[in-house]
Design brief:
It holds the Pfam family DUF7109. InterPro entries: DUF7109 (IPR055533). This protein has 157 residues and is mainly alpha-helical. The chain has two domains: 5-91, Arc Repressor Mutant, subunit A, CATH 1.10.10; 100-156, no CATH class. It is built from seven helices and two strands; from the N terminus they run αααββαααα. It has a two-stranded antiparallel ribbon with strand order 1-2. A hairpin with an 8-residue loop joins strand 1 (57-60) and strand 2. The protein is elongated, with a radius of gyration of 16 Å. The relative contact order is 0.16.
């Protein structure tokens, strides 16, 4: 089973958020239920990393677990893969309630780091992408990214 970023977001959204290990278990269950198949762990890790870079997934550290949760991010269009809708009952993980303000601040900090990296690298494509993402983040969480957006726009001039 190969999952897209939006499918990963759909799976984590079923629970409110999942650790990487829990997401691996959920995807393995879905693959097995679908066709008795398995999940390519390396491909999933690459998809997770790409989803984090694009803000389709975000990490949430401020919860009561040791490992951060992966949460559906501001650019995601969560889509539950076929045969995955029953996974919450199989894994017996209760839905997690997240503090949206704390999550938003965490995403703002990550976004600011990405802004600095894109400006330093003079990566016009990434700068344009981050300008678009800034609006998604603001509509997704109670944060203001006007200063970061101004820095990005100035870098393009």
């Amino acid at each position: 089973m190969e999952a897209t970023a939006d499918e990963l977001a759909g799976v984590v959204d079923l629970f409110g958020g999942l650790t990487r290990a829990e997401l691996d278990r959920a995807l393995s269950e879905a693959a097995f239920r679908a066709d008795g198949g398995s999940v390519d762990g390396a491909a999933v890790e690459t998809t997770i990393d790409d989803a984090l870079a694009s803000f389709a997934l975000v990490e949430y550290d401020d919860w009561h677990g040791a490992d951060p949760l992966l949460v559906a991010g501001p650019t995601a269009f969560p889509a539950v893969p076929d045969d995955a809708e029953d996974i919450p009952y199989i894994l017996e993980i209760e839905r997690r309630r997240l503090d949206r303000e704390t999550l938003g601040e965490s995403v703002r900090d990550c976004f600011a780091d990405d802004v600095a990296d894109a400006i330093e690298a003079v990566d016009d494509g990434r700068i344009r992408e981050l300008i678009d993402v800034s609006y998604d983040v603001e509509s997704w969480a109670p944060v203001d990214l006007a200063d970061e957006r101004s820095r990005l726009e100035a870098a393009l001039e």
